[in-house]
Fold each of these.
Amino acid sequence: MSFEWRTKKLEDVSINLSNRRVPLSSRERQQLKKVYPYYGAQGVIDYVDSYLFDGEFLLVAEDGENLRSRKQHIANIARGKFWVNNHAHVLLNNDESDLYYLYYYMNSIDISGYLTGSVQPKLSKANLNNISIVISVA
């Protein structure tokens, strides 16, 4: 079997589930049991008593200084049952990609051309979906 490398848009090799995110204020979270991870742009920021996602997903920061400085990964894999606020995009690989390849790829490329905002960098859903990704096809 031979493979060739092609450039595609991220939206062609993943399923963006960001519309399922629900932010909770710190006041709302204070009144909840601490059971399931609550993710923000850079990982777990709290725990809550319910979950929105169950499985293995790629979380990509939507905003924050780290999108430019890259002091930490901009993409992380979340497993199990968890909640995501509106500061991290939620992606699932489709049959054309591998979740771990997407994870490594997103953390290794320059995304500066996809960012907006001069003070607070932002990676919109539309810009995330338009990121070019090199992927092998059979």
Amino acid sequence: MKTIRAAGNEDMESVFMMGYDAWGDKLAVQDYLNVCNESSKYKNGVWYVLVDTETNKLLSSLIVYTLKPSKGLVIKGIGSISTPPELRGKGYASILIKETIKELEEKEHCNLIFLYSDIDHIFYNKLNFKAIPTSKQKYKNSVCMYYSSTLEIETISYEVPAYF
């Protein structure tokens, strides 16, 4: 059985280590953990984790940020999506993203979610994320994408968030 929940303090070392291979920048493990623990960026979001309830092992993690509202919209940003290398390709990140979106829509009435794709954006297309128009993209190597079950991006006024 798998369950999604907000990460507690006891989870944070494991959560931060999930991204070590991608974001560790050749730091020693303890130095990397110190950087993560001191990060104001990470303190400004809510971490969500997918957990195997039988083993209590963290399978995937992501962070959700509250972004600047626009004309009554509740806007969130999803970032730092990570799964340990040995667990990739098993669908854990997809489960976590889908369940997090469901929770954001139901409990926080979120109607627009952004993320930046640093991987092949086709992965996120399969989860119903769409790239914002090319003319509004801010970065060369990262595609800003959005998800909404009720809105088309062309029909609303919004501010493209900076990378989070």
